[in-house]
What does this fold into?
Amino acid sequence: MEFRFETIEYDKSLPSLPKHSGVYKIFDIRGKLIVLDKTSNLFERFERYYGERSERVRDLDLREITGRIEYIRTESTFETLYVLYLERKRYFPKTYRKMRTFRLFTLMKINRKQRFPRIYASRQVKAGVDYFGPFISRGQFTKLKTTLERTFKLRPCLYNIRGNDPHPDCLYFQMHTCSRPCNNDIDRRGYLEDVQDAVCFIEGRDAEIEQSLIRKMNTFAAETKFEEAEMVHRRLDKLHRARQEYKDTFFSVWKFNYIAVLGADSVSRCKIAFIKQARIVAFEQYEVASLKDCFDEDVHRVFRVPGDKSTSDAVYDEFCLVANFIVDPLQSVDLVPIGDTDSVAELVIQRLQQRRRKRKSKEELATKGTEGT
It folds into this structure.
């Protein structure tokens, strides 16, 4: 996956750049990077930097200090942001996140390596820990955290709970709002089952929780343990009320597998970004006519191989980059979730056909409007 920049040696005249979106870099006469940015029109942006000066235009004048210019054409907002992210991370590894290349989101962290896990907010990703998102605001995160703690009785306290160490001065302990693992009211196995139910709730897999609770309730009823069966029934009712109050669901970072269908420089071609476990692992261009022949092989090659849950800032960064197009969808970016890898090519072709039909209908409407005038 390589993005090649075109290089122009600056000769004191207006550079000849295309009227196209892209990412550009400007270096001074000593070879030091002085500008790294994106634009929807490369020609107009550089005309402001190197064109004729006017008293009414107070743009940055770089004519006397520029040594060379590098630029790359991009065909979609997704590609633009990704290339800009890579370049900013390359040149400014310590400060690139502060440059607001794209919106960053809060993640919900659940570390099952803890003896009795609790819920955290996080803006980084580490191996072996579960993360869910994207949360648009801290309020959205807090509301779900409270819902999970009340519904599944997960502990909100900050104590390092190991069991057999009760905290009677704890408000949650006194009110029985958690399952009180510190008092051995629940063992680690039972607590982790509640954590797993909470994870299912976050992802919207309520049916799995319901089936498990119904099985338990029927088992208790068959054994004439009606009090236990009634307690399970109350948990089922609590689950239904929680879903009515909180309808949003979120993605697991380690299950975040998508295909991003992007535009290209011609309607006969398309660009595809492969997103595996929140990482953009490949960026390819295909001929639409022959897409089916070669695309399936690439999908199997990328997604059939087990992923590596490694710790990397890029996991969080690239998850947020893709999540931006889920939170605020764009017509130029079609995100196709990876479920059955055998049907991905057909879904991609359908999306391309839908995009072509929309473009054609817009052109027809524009033509009719012109004829009407």
Remarks:
- The chain has ten helices and twelve strands.
- The mean pLDDT is 89.
- The CA atoms of residues 22 and 74 lie 5 Å apart.
